[in-house]
Amino acid sequence: MAQFKIQGQIPLSGKISVSGAKNAALKAIAASLLSPQPLKITNFPFVHDVRSMLAVLETIGARITRGDHEVTIDTSNVASGNLLDAAARKIRTTTLLIGPLLHRFGEVQMGFPGGCVIGRRPIDIFINGYRALGVQVDEDDGERFIFKGKVTGGEFFFPQVSVTATESLLLAACVGVGRTILKNVAMEPEIPALAEYLSAHNAKISGAGTASIIIEGVPEITAGEYKIIPDRVEAGSFLIMAAAARAELIVENCQPEHLESLLATFDQIGVPYTRRQTSVAVHKNDRTFASANIKTHEYPGFITDLQAPMTVFLTQCQGQSLVHETIFEGRLFYIDLLNRMGANILLCDPHRALVQGPSRLRGKIIDSPDIRAGMAMVIAGLIARGETIIGNIEQIDRGYEALDERLRRIGAEITRV
Ligand code: EPZ
Q1: What is the rounded average pLDDT of the residues 50-61?
Q2: How many Å lie between the centroid of ligand 1 and the Cα of residue 163?
Q3: What was the pLDDT predicted at 113?
Q4: pLDDT band at 122 (very low <50, low <70, confident <90, very high)
Q5: What value does the mean pLDDT take over residues 53-61?
Q6: pLDDT at 404 over 90
Q7: What is the Å distance from ligand 1's center to 349 Cα?
Q8: Distance 121 CA to ligand 1 centre (A)
Q9: Residue 64 phi/psi, 5° resolution?
Q10: pLDDT above 80: residue 115
Q11: Which of 223, 243, 341, 397 could bridge across to 39 with cysteines, CB 3.0–4.6 Å?
């Protein structure tokens, strides 16, 4: 098992460039199934999760050509809607393939999908959404799901906002017949980005990025080139790292307008930064940071994927901060690792934690619980006194490309052992 070895409290400075968004690339890969023409995806992040999704497409017959941060996916040879393969069961974004494969074959079989261990991760909303659009869904003991028939349009109100369920139904409804009205949908930037690409290739979609989306099915979606938007979670993670380490760092090739919830929190805490068109610079300082309460919320609220990194920063802020994770029930379990490093955090319940700060963190030997808590552990290691060893870093590689190389370039003493 690979590990990161980090020496803490080394001054960081310089520039770090943001990769393409993992959670946009995963959906672009699914969109390649909508057309027999090859799809070229650029600004493509070759992180582990994306490689896993490409592997699923290859198991059903897609041909993939890899370049430097780009792929071309030819799905003309895909001959089956059978997603029961182990590779497909491993990842949750297999759910995005159902719609396009249904359009091609009229039947899709899928196992219960995997995903991060940050909560139950049910798929009831997907099932009910497909049924609302006219698809027959049978399941045997919740292990195997069979989707039959074609999307004929309909109306569906999401009982809970769901990012990939929104994208899954968008991909299903955009090709074929009928008018689909989706209500209480997610508004994460990756969704308008996907809708924009599809609309440029014959789809008829309105309202993406708002709470309701209307889709008119069209007979065919063409394919072309899809440039992935910058990864707002990676950008936010680097900004929080710079603030916590009191570094002078420019995070470039990002879209600051996707990070306004984080920047608003920085304003509350008193983090000095300069916002430009495609970059944000955090400034070196020795200010006393004020505490702040964060409550994760669907976009444009505070990003749940930045909750763990932000909690590390809050251990360095003066006073008491409440962290309220409203989206997932299993996304605070890294707190005991931080307390072992010297933080003073009370886990009130699966959704709430009270952080007392500032506290001096000391390096420890710890494991990375999931992608984003893994990045939080890296930030903790960079600001702790002494050496931190982080195990299970495959979790971190799932969401951040060549993280150790990029951090060494801004002065961090981090090695992959
Ligand atoms: C997406 O996950 C992201 N993943 C997650 O990022 C992100 O944390 C999450 O959205 C919230 O922003 C991708 O885009 C690949 P949800 P998703 O469906 O779509 C419940 C990362 O680190 N729910 O919006 O799976 C669910 O349990 C990952 O990059 C149901 O109850 O999240 C959760 O409580 C982690 N039934 C809530 O909805 C369903 O059928 C929101 O989950 C579906 C979801």
Answers
A1: 95
A2: 6
A3: 83
A4: confident
A5: 95
A6: yes
A7: 20
A8: 7
A9: -120, 125
A10: no
A11: 223
Is pLDDT at 390 greater than 80 in this prediction?
yes
Q: pLDDT at position 121, please?
A: 72
Angle at 325 between CA 122 and CA 123, to 5 degrees: 10
- Taking CA atoms only, the protein residue closest to ligand 1 atom 6 is 305
Which structure tokens are listed for 100? 């396009």
Kindly give the distance from the C-alpha atom of residue 234 to the centroid of ligand 1, in angstroms, as a whole number. 17
Q: Work out the number of other CB atoms within 10 angstroms of the CB of residue 252.
A: 17
Ligand 1 atom, smallest distance to 116 CA: 35
Pocket test for ligand 1, best of 51, 121, 171, 401 (most atoms within 8 A of CB): 121
Q: Pick the catalytic residue: 116, 174, 254, 317?
A: 116
Q: Which two tokens stand for residue 244?
A: 């916590």
- How far lies 312's CA from each of 29, 318, 343, 345, in Å? 33, 13, 8, 10
Residue type, position 193, single letter: A
pLDDT per residue as tens digits for the range 342-388 = 999 999 999 999 999 999 999 999 999 999 999 999 999 999 999 99
The question of whether 348 is a catalytic residue gets the answer no
What pLDDT does residue 406 have?
Answer: 98
Q: Measuring from atom 29 of ligand 1, which residue has the nearest CA?
A: 23
* C-alpha 34 – ligand 1 centre gap (Å): 23
- Ligand 1: lining residues by beta carbon, under 6 Å: 22-23, 26, 92-93, 116, 119-126, 160, 162-165, 186, 304-305, 327-328, 371-372, 399
Q: How far apart are CA 141 and CA 198, in angstroms?
A: 35
Q: Which protein residue's CA is at the shortest distance from atom 18 of ligand 1?
A: 162
